[in-house]
Amino acid sequence: MRPSPPRTVLMLQGPPCRFWRELGDGLRAEGFRVLHVGFCLADLALWRRRGQRLWRGRLADWPAHLSALIAAEGVTDILYYADRLPYHAAAIEVARAAGIRAWAIENGYLRPDWLTMEPEAMGALSRFPRDPAEIRRLAGDAAVPEATPRYRHGFAREAVSEVVFHLAMVLGRPIFPNYMADKHYPPLLDYLSWLRKWSLGGAAVRAAARAEAACRRRDWPFVLLAMQLQSDYQIRASSPYGCLSEMLEDAIASFAAHAPARLRLVVKLHPMDNGWENWPARIARLARAHGVADRVLAIDGGSLDLFLERAEGVLTVNSTVGIHALRRGRPVLALGDAVYDMPGLTHQGGLGRFWARPEAPEPELRDAFLAALADRIQLRGSFYDPAGRAAAVAEIARRLGKPERHWLLCRPVEALGLAAQARPGGTADAATEPGDLGPAGSPALALRQQRQMA
């Protein structure tokens, strides 16, 4: 009998570190044929292995080029990081048409030391089920994952990798003039914003310390609003908000109208926020405008674990903080499209009711959700810790070799809102770029409208 041909894995853009190169090496060691497409100078510098192709053409021509490459090389699987990057969003459609698998490799839902390996995409486009009965079926006898981290890395390692990657991307612009980075902030200005933030950091640290002390003393009951990054793809692609200011307006207006007078709203900034938006000033203006300046507090820093333990509820767009809160039994309301948002797990009764009557998660469903998530689309590992990288490489190779258990297609394509829709503020007929999800007619907009109701 003839031996079957080796599986051919095409790797597109990876995370801004050496992980992608090590993953390619690990897949080759397991018998896979590995190809790589680089889109910018940073990709070229990080890969440094054979099998690399460069794409310097226009984004509009990329799908046809990719389709021809798949056919010529016998590609069986595509891997990429950041599934909403325009090149990767287009790759999903091309892979479907070619009848091959495409996988999103990302930071994990169960952070800090988990990675995601999910069919096609995350967030609003995730195939992971949102039906409690299906969650219980998928969980089977899988164990609830332990919460103690195995792999750790310092902030500096991740920050330096990001800076080097994006500087190389900028410096390589003359060689890759057509590259679309699709970044919310220009990289150089992003880093300059960090300098300003660090220069004012003392006041933020003191304010967070005061809030922590009040939290420990239980000076007041509060709901925690966990901010995300404005640059996060899960805001742009999996929520109805064009800017997080819109989310803050919704939340603070509802808080002013419906929250009991005893309750406070603590808005915790994302630890990687660069300070560009000056969220504390915006939050203070909104609170004053709605007459709740003395009950809304913005903090930049402090212990997330402490605030989650003491909060009466947690509000977010679709942050993984929501999963950490569910683990602690806290009521959670997701204002966007989140993989954990479903009846019995998150609050479904509207934003107006959340302040006084939040719905807590059902412990049995929560455990089934965590078990199914970890067993099917999460894997233990790290992009930055050496031991974590080795563990992740081995597990990704194993799953690519036997993908059936992990190739979940539970949500039909028609339910994922994949038809071209407008950007926030536009119309359903407006032209869009590949992979855009606008609010017109989208499930996320319907969700937002439902949850603003009292």
Automatic annotation (TrEMBL):
Region (Disordered): 424-454
Pfam families: Capsule_synth
UniProt cross-references to InterPro entries, sorted A to Z: Capsule_polysaccharide_synth (IPR007833)
Protein's name in the database: Capsule biosynthesis protein
Lineage of origin: Bacteria, Pseudomonadati, Pseudomonadota, Alphaproteobacteria, Rhodobacterales
